Amino acid sequence: MKQTKLVFIFPENTVEEPITYNLITNYGVQVNILRASIDPGKQGRMVVELGGEEIQISQALNYLESLGVLVAPLAQKIRHLEDRCTGCTACVPHCPTRALDVDRDSWKVSFDSEKCIVCFSCLETCIYHAMSVEEQFA
Questions:
Q1: How far apart are CA 69 and CA 53, in angstroms?
Q2: 127 pLDDT more than 80
């Protein structure tokens, strides 16, 4: 069984449709809603984990596309929590892309998210939990 995390963005004309019900009953996919923000008459957004055979997921995604629902993969992003960072610099040498750096005068660690490849090295290294994973929507 394949599992994938996706973001569904619903146009306002489909917000009141029983889309989740149809995905389960008509296509046999498992739908785990991780986060949702849906208001009648407005655009909706839902983060889901779909599970099923590849053919089932493919057919379900075709159904969503036919309704005008935008489907995008759920991406992750690393975030530097400056209030937790002590400036110990343990994370800096473990960053393969040099997204983490330290100012040698102030001992302040800086983070350049553009350089980050989400390898999780900093999360594994930082004992102060000053780095976290943030879900981003494509």
A1: 21
A2: yes
